[in-house]
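Dear Dr. L.,

I hope this message finds you well. Following up on our conversation about the binding site, I have prepared a predicted three-dimensional model of the protein together with magnesium ion. For your records, I am including the exact sequence and ligand specification that went into the calculation, followed by the structure tokens. Please feel free to forward this to your student if that is useful.
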Amino acid sequence: MIRKSGMYADLECILLTEEELKAGIRRLGETITRDYAGKEPLLVCTLKGAVNFFADLIREIDLPLAVDFIAASSYKGTESTGKVNIRKDVDADIAGRDVLIVEDIIDTGITLNNLKTELLKRKPASLKIVTLLDKPGGRQSDLEPDYACFTIPDGFVVGYGLDYNEKYRNLPDIGILARHIYEKEN
Ligand code: IMP
Ligand code: MG
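The resulting structure of the complex is given below.
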């Protein structure tokens, strides 16, 4: 088990422990199970940051569901045009489906807002946004999650799927990255 050494030395502090994450995700799974009773939702994982959350969340939802994966990013500098670059699309035809997009963190909300607009064109029966972390202080779009597991303050967080330059995704907890780590590299 990875513990308070090695990569943990790069953290300013731990924000959410493995146990807190587990408890929050269990509660969210129960809520989704209740809200989608009688339905067979399609859960779409946004790559790569939401992978850990996704794997844990689907095991807390007691419904017949399907899974899919998508990778998207915004075109830099063209945010006002609302263009989204879908690098890997879902395999499923989402028309008529009850779709839940599962995201790791919503900061500006720009990418997800653009992705939502794009997916709505495909006429799903419903489309909702689930996020593990909501950072409302960073918002630069109208996007609000339908389900948010935890609301966090500003600061760059890593662990449990979230990365800094592809590192720290395998930490079981979520922590705030120490300022000297990213100031050193930028
Ligand atoms: P947006 O700013 O809401 O469009 O966020 C886009 C993506 O940036 C998220 O899905 C994350 O992958 C990444 N991101 C935003 N804030 C953080 C953070 O604090 N740590 C790690 N990744 C982040
Ligand atoms: Mg992401």
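In brief: The CA atoms of residues 41 and 98 lie 5 Å apart.

With kind regards,
A. P.
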